[in-house]
Amino acid sequence: MKSSVKTTLAELFAAVVLVVAVAVILSMGLSSCASTEKTVETAQPVETEKKLEAKKKTEYSKTDFMEDLKSVLNKDGPEAALSLYETKLPAKYADDFDLLFLKAAINVSAENLDEAQALCNELSQRDPQNNDVASLAVVIAKMKGDNAERTKQVNSLLAKDKLNSAANVELGEDMFLKKNYKQAKIYYKRALVREPENIDALRGAGQCDYYLENDDEAEKTFKKILEIDPKNTQAFLYLGKLAYAANEYKIASDYAKQALDVDPENYECNMDYGMYERYLGHYKNAESSWTKAIEIEPDYFLAYAYRAGLYDEQDIFVNAMEDYKKVIELNPNYYFAYESLGILALHEENWTTAREAFMKCYDSNKNNISYPLMITYCYYKEGNGTEAKNFSNQVLRKMDRNSIEYSMLRVFHDRAGERPLPQRISAMTNRNLQGKMYYYLALFYDMFGGTELANEYYAKVVSMNSPMFFEFRLAEWRTKGKVPLK
């Protein structure tokens, strides 16, 4: 299954900028601040070499500030790092371009977007050609949802250099979100011309190849990312997806486990690892992984749906029903959960829950005869024959009177008239519909006293050995004595 991780843009860019901020500190500490320090020193009166050395040791330099900034940023986060600008930054560096740019980046990490934007505007006026400032302005505009400003900054970068990496990554992401993977890949490849090790561009190109099913190219790209960044979660994640697509479940599971070792709180990593472990038959690991995903995103439905299917597969029906109910609560439009809940409720002889679930199915798909037949059946099992007739009558009025579906529901409504049905069903060419009709004929006899005939038609359904309709499972349960349904 080809899916994508559920992460907000704000979280994603805050994390990225935090990493960039630390990297900027390191690079600036080795380059730009050295020239600044030299300028300060040459402006001083001539002193003896010994006095100069002593002064250097006691003076709090730009390098010292940046080292403290990096330490606090890593240890206590962006807000604590920003406080150093008020408490430790020497006055002579208050207007330093590099440090103000870094302050803007840290403000983005802290999601102080107005402050970050104001600093970017100031820096842009001082140096209109600075690509780093324009790139940070793109990030700020994106986080604020200001598409016009984002487009302006991207165009500004491209006007200076059509191969600007940051701008082409942005254009690639635009196309990627529109699922135009071919065009997105072109932009990501342009980004790599200037920066062949740009992780964002490599990731984007790899994802495009994945969705375009260029699996060999995608694999090479994600392995290259791991050469640059051996702990890159997305690279492990997509290598797992590629292995899964090739039915190499053990390899897929190993990659997903490596992704989890790096980022154990990642929702998508837990989802994928659980899926691979399920295919390997490691049900406990799958259950634990999807339970962890639920802890991470308790208000998102997908992990509940996966875990429900796992419980269902193991005949842990009560747990499965609870998870399906949670799926419906969180995503009322998830059609398949209603059908699964209805089937399991039949097994548990919870007729009202089954009927209500099949009612939702019928609301979504009026053309599937299974649902009105099941609803009518459940009304009978609830002891409410009047509503069974009222409901089935309303459905019958809108159906083709010559169809086999009409004839079967008519029999349920009248509780009689089934005798012509076996011959009509045996002559059918549609195997799925034929199987369904045999099942409902058996169910009719189960309800109204023909146990021997019921067993005969249940057996016909099971002998078809083509479970493309959910009634096949119910017939199997009935022949194996797992559910009475009578």
From TrEMBL:
SMART domains associated with the record: TPR (SM00028)
Keywords: Membrane, TPR repeat, Transmembrane, Transmembrane helix
TPR repeat feature ranges: 165-198, 199-232, 233-266, 301-334
SUPFAM superfamilies reported in the protein's UniProt record: TPR-like (SSF48452)
InterPro entries reported for this sequence: TPR-like_helical_dom_sf (IPR011990), TPR_rpt (IPR019734)
Pfam families per record: TPR_19 (PF14559)
Membrane-crossing residue ranges in chain numbering: 12-30
Name of this protein: Tetratricopeptide TPR_1 repeat-containing protein
